């Protein structure tokens, strides 16, 4: 096919001689492509049925042989024309980390690793390794987080679930060769939330002891605050808890348990000498911890741990599904204890191990002011410990369960969640859409988009950029069967409407390297 026009680009710095030479070349090209007028027969067009400009249209309802059709030019705003401009595709986030899905704006595979994003000093980088996952029920958020965690194992990242309240992560951990710690249900497993944990590498003795003391005190205060009727502690009760902890540490050679602290509180309350106000204040914390020693939570957290954290396992899951059936208070107490135990054993910045800490029902970690303050500090220090906290919520309204309206606890909970820079926003309902704009300051167009997302699709906010990702587009049948959570309710209908790649197709798209003998191909 011969060109009809010649497009020329003029260099910015061109002499007169060069300009004349270029014009001469363009003139030759135009003469070369010029064609003689062709007839209808040469163009293989049919002759009109009747001669003349109108043909049989006037009498037979046929076509009209009118003059050349004049098509008016298309007019639109620059905003609408950007949709057909050929160079508007996003460059994407890059190719570091595991494949999570397909970037629908860039039409390319979407990779994500919070540590690579934090290490990126360019425009696509992030200032935090933590991720907020927000979405309605059955929006696919749990399956996407499992996909990210399972695929990250090949990159050397460990996944830790401090409290699996529904037992959804047990099959995933067993499938990838991880470790499952089961609490309750007659398993006889105990975790000590006051465990000291490993020594912080590079920290002085004073700094290390101060960090351990603060974490233990915050755990005790959180447990007592959630149990007492008032929900808050007096200054005397705070002093009792610190005194009992100090005595338990000295008596047990720095290996205290909840039983030891409970015994020290009983000793303070029964003492005949000393401050009478302190003796009276020991009664509340004593009865609060008695629940762990002799009550419905006995045999779980009151003595030394019977299991150890497996640092070499690709995934560690603490299965608390047997305990969550006992009520919300038991669930919150359990989550505080398991989270404190996990934090004690993984908070070493020189361990050189990157970990996801996946917090299902993340609002349960914010049940008191002390736990909120500890939670906030943990999020700030996570990048120093090589940790990425994934906080999962159904909606921002979940935080209304924290404290009273306009209380310090609730305001702090909204502030802690709002400060998480990286966000995965899944489909949301109409009632929760307003909170996305008021609480998270998302654009109105993105809020409207979030209400129309399909299952497995989410808007990812990484640093200063947003991405529209379809995670289920890259799911293999093995992953789909392992990660789905609706089969108990929907049965065979759980698979309806899901399209998954065949493993061979994924390998073809991903272009994974293969080996022949000892050589990488």
Task: Give structural notes.
The protein has 521 residues and is of the alpha/beta class. The chain has 20 helices and 13 strands. It has an eleven-stranded mixed beta sheet. Strands 12-13 form a two-stranded antiparallel sheet. Strand 10 and strand 11 form a beta hairpin. It starts with 15 loop residues before the first helix and ends with a strand. The relative contact order is 0.13. Mean pLDDT is 81; it is low at 487-491 and 512-521.
Number of strands: 13
Percent helix, as a range, is 25-40%
Average pLDDT value? 81
- The proportion of residues in beta strands is 5-15%
Strand order of the largest sheet: 2-1-11-10-9-3-8-7-4-6-5
Radius of gyration equals: 33 Å
Tally of DSSP helical segments? 20
Largest sheet, if any? 11 strands, mixed
| Low-pLDDT segments | 487-491, 512-521
Structural class by sheet pairing and helices:
alpha/beta
Shape: elongated
* Cα separation of the termini: 41 Å
């Amino acid at each position: 096919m011969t060109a009809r026009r010649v497009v020329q680009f003029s260099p910015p710095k061109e002499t007169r001689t060069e300009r004349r030479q270029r014009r001469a070349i363009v003139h030759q090209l135009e003469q070369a492509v010029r064609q003689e007028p062709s007839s209808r027969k040469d163009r293989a067009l049919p002759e009109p049925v009747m001669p003349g400009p109108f043909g049989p249209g006037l009498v037979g309802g046929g076509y009209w042989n009118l003059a050349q059709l004049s098509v008016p030019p298309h007019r639109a705003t620059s905003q609408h024309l950007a949709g057909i401009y050929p160079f508007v595709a996003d460059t994407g986030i890059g190719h570091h980390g595991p494949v999570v899905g397909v970037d629908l704006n860039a039409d390319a595979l979407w990779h994500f690793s919070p540590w690579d994003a934090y290490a990126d000093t360019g425009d696509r980088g992030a200032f935090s390794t933590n991720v907020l996952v927000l979405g309605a029920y059955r929006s696919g958020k749990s399956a996407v987080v499992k996909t990210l965690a399972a695929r990250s194992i090949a990159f050397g990242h460990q996944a830790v679930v401090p409290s699996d309240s529904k037992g959804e992560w047990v099959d995933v951990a067993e499938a990838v060769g991880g470790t499952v710690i089961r609490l309750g249900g007659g398993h006889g497993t105990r975790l000590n939330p006051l465990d000291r944990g490993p020594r912080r590498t590079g920290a002085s003795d004073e700094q290390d002891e101060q960090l351990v003391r603060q974490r233990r005190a915050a755990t005790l205060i959180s447990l007592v605050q959630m149990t007492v009727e008032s929900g808050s502690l007096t200054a005397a009760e705070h002093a009792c808890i610190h005194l009992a902890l100090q005595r338990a540490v000295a008596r047990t050679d720095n290996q205290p348990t909840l039983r030891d602290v409970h015994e020290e509180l009983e000793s303070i309350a029964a003492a005949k000498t000393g401050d009478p106000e302190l003796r009276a204040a020991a009664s509340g914390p004593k009865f609060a911890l008695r629940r762990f020693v002799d009550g419905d939570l006995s045999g779980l957290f009151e003595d030394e741990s019977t299991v150890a954290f497996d640092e070499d396992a690709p995934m560690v899951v603490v299965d608390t599904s047997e305990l969550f059936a006992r009520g919300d208070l038991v669930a919150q107490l359990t989550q505080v204890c398991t989270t404190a135990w996990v934090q004690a054993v993984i908070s070493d910045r020189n361990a050189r191990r990157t970990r996801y800490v996946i917090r299902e029902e993340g609002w349960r970690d914010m049940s008191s002011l002390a736990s909120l303050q500890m939670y906030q500090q943990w999020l700030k220090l996570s990048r120093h410990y090589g940790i990425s906290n994934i906080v999962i919520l159904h909606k921002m309204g979940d935080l209304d369960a924290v404290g009273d309206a306009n209380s310090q606890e609730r305001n702090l909970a909204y502030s802690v969640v709002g400060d998480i820079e990286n966000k995965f926003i899944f489909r949301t309902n109409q009632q929760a859409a307003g909170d996305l704009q008021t609480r998270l300051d998302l654009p109105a167009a993105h809020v409207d988009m979030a209400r129309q997302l399909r299952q497995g699709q989410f808007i990812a906010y990484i640093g200063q950029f947003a991405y529209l990702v379809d995670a289920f587009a890259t799911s293999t049948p093995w992953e789909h069967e392992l990660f789905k959570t609706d089969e108990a309710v929907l049965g065979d209908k759980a698979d309806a409407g899901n399209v998954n790649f065949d493993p061979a197709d994924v390998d073809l798209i991903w272009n994974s390297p293969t080996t022949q003998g000892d050589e990488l191909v």
